[in-house]
């Protein structure tokens, strides 16, 4: 047996552990969901790697998760016969190296927004939730394919350090939680069962617990005798929900599945579940969340759709399954026509994946169209959460551009909140009005205050107020909607005549009177502006800057400048 080595946690990990131990009092039972979800991931990985290397699956019996507790010793044990970890992996995954989500999780907690443990899984730091209830955690693991003697025992009291030593161990991972004095309640089989049913019912592997009363006579249970123990009950459903017929699934089951998959606390806003037959067959169970995922704007974010092939988990951040502008969608796609040993590289060029992506994209757009038509309030919630992301679709997805354009909502000179669709706008265009007018600025408020609007306001013409960064690209990619061109109110050649006379009386202008002033201004500003003209577009402001016919709009110029162009 090798000697015990002691190593230190990364600083951020230490802060995280401190937080776990001292501040997370609500929903402490979440630790079990996190450990079960890690066990399930480890089983998924083993099954997946087992397709290219069958020897990895040798021994260990049926793939599954076992949970035991000992009320006298105050321990809870979670065990899986999955992929396991090598010594290097233990150190990298749960030791020294800080995870990318650690800082973000600390931020949300320290900002005092929530002291709620339920969020934890979203941030990729779920393992540490063990320390919410345990004052010592002992993890024993052995990587599949390595000899028994290359097992690793990791132990920590969740303070600055952990110890690590080489031991003999069966394949997979066993975690023993030595419960804190105030967490002894969790060493109770009934309690554990009910937690599993609440949070882990839809894990696709069986989660088993001893059938009779938990035996507490021999102390810590042996990791080796997965098969030897006589009676185990499976306590979760252990089926792939998406593979069941829709009619047999209740909304509660869908919601629970979504929460388990996304680590979200709320039920989703909407879902679609379809079995697609035809040239490529697949099942999609996709959800639109009711809250913004923390990494929506993070370039290194994980993707929200898990890929399965015939019920076998393949990967969980399959970037190619949906376009980027639908990155808020969570769910599962189970394809029948992909090989089980599919790699990311194969996915990238795959016709099957292209067809799945196109099909799922159309279905999600359809789902959003239905929501917009049938439940305007819900659609407003959706738009508030993900509207800015969906706008990217107008720029990126030419095939679906018109459908996405139909889903856009804007604030306008008539509606302060972003509730106006382009169809609404077109329906109330003035007689003689040919274009959809918009104005871009740093914010909707700044857009609303723009002097460029005065002439259009004076003629009773509605103008879209665009204040998001993406909007400039959006209007650049959307030349027209419903045959009506989009036209910037800041462009020089507004054809105001066709819009009829201004409703507000404008002071008469005699060009000749102004000529000396104009030439003086022109000379003074010759390096800055192309020309200085009299305008009939202002009713209140003395002056405004307009873009030339071919020129960039003022706002785009500002954006490019701030991007260093
Ligand atoms: P996440 O699951 O989001 O990656 P966790 O903190 O829950 O974050 O787990 C960290 C990492 O530790 C996992 O990604 C995995 O590599 C490793 N790990 C945790 N539990 C197990 C397990 N039971 N078997 C194998 N590896 C595990
Ligand atoms: Mg995890």
From TrEMBL:
Any Pfam family: HATPase_c_3
Domain Histidine kinase/HSP90-like ATPase as annotated: residue spans: 27-183
Cited SMART domains: HATPase_c
Residues the record lists as binding ATP: 34, 38, 80, 85, 93, 100-101, 122-127, 173, 344
TM segment ranges: none
Superkingdom field: Bacteria
Predominant subcellular localization, coarse grouping: cytoplasm
Region (A): 1-344
Alphabetically ordered keywords of this record: ATP-binding, Chaperone, Cytoplasm, Nucleotide-binding, Stress response
GO terms for cellular component: cytoplasm
Cell location: Cytoplasm
CDD domains: HATPase_Hsp90-like
GO molecular function annotation: ATP binding; ATP hydrolysis activity; ATP-dependent protein folding chaperone; unfolded protein binding
NCBIfam families according to UniProt: PRK05218.1 (NF003555)
Subunit structure: Homodimer.
Function: Molecular chaperone. Has ATPase activity.
Protein family: Belongs to the heat shock protein 90 family.
Name assigned to this protein: Chaperone protein HtpG
Naturally occurring in which organism (per UniProt): Immundisolibacter cernigliae
Lineage: Bacteria, Pseudomonadati, Pseudomonadota, Gammaproteobacteria, Immundisolibacterales
Name of the gene encoding the protein in the UniProt record: htpG
